[in-house]
Amino acid sequence: SNLNFLSNDVVKKLQEIKSLAIDRGVPPLVFLTKIDEICELVRDDVSKVYNSKIVEDAVNKAADLFAIPRFHVLPVKNYEKESELLTSINILALTALRKSLMFADDFLENQCELKQEKMETLNKQD
């Protein structure tokens, strides 16, 4: 996978960005693209992505590399050579989008709760 070719400098920079995001309460997500290039099973049928040991290993490697939970690594296949839309590719992309939106929603909810707690603390001081 392309993860093998990331330089130490790139990995270090990405880890710094991840740390900054976490410090701000933003959950880190990794979109693992080009999964069809690392696995013939997925190249032939994208719907088999969750049956692929190779993709699973790539997800684990990305999670380990960036020190994030596995469910924060979202495998997707880019449209590249396809001349028509494919349901299996769309489902994978929409699943990743849905998970991203769930993380964003959780982040915004947490921010609202923090703001509310801060306001309550300030009101008690008055």
Using brief descriptors, characterize the structure shown.
126 residues; two-stranded parallel ribbon; 5 helices; elongated; Interferon-induced protein 44-like protein
Secondary-structure map:
Elements: H1 8-23, E1 30-32, H2 35-38, H3 40-44, H4 53-66, E2 73-75, H5 87-125
Provide an overview of this structure.
This protein has 126 residues and is mainly alpha-helical. It has one domain (2-125). The protein contains five helices and two strands, in the order αβαααβα. It has helices spanning 8-23, 35-38, 40-44, 53-66, 87-125, and strands spanning 30-32, 73-75. The protein has a two-stranded parallel ribbon with strand order 1-2. The longest helix is centred in the C-terminal third of the chain and has 39 residues, at 87-125. The protein is elongated. The termini are far apart. The mean pLDDT is 91. This is Interferon-induced protein 44-like protein.
Provide the low-confidence segments as ranges.
none
Order of helices and strands: HEHHHEH
Number of domains: 1
Number of helices: 5
- Summarize model confidence as the mean pLDDT: 91
The proportion of residues forming helix, as a percent range, comes to: 55-70%
**What global shape is seen?**
elongated
Q: How much strand content do the residues show?
A: under 5%
Measured on Cα atoms, how large is the radius of gyration?
18 Å
Protein name: Interferon-induced protein 44-like protein
Organism: Magallana gigas (Pacific oyster)
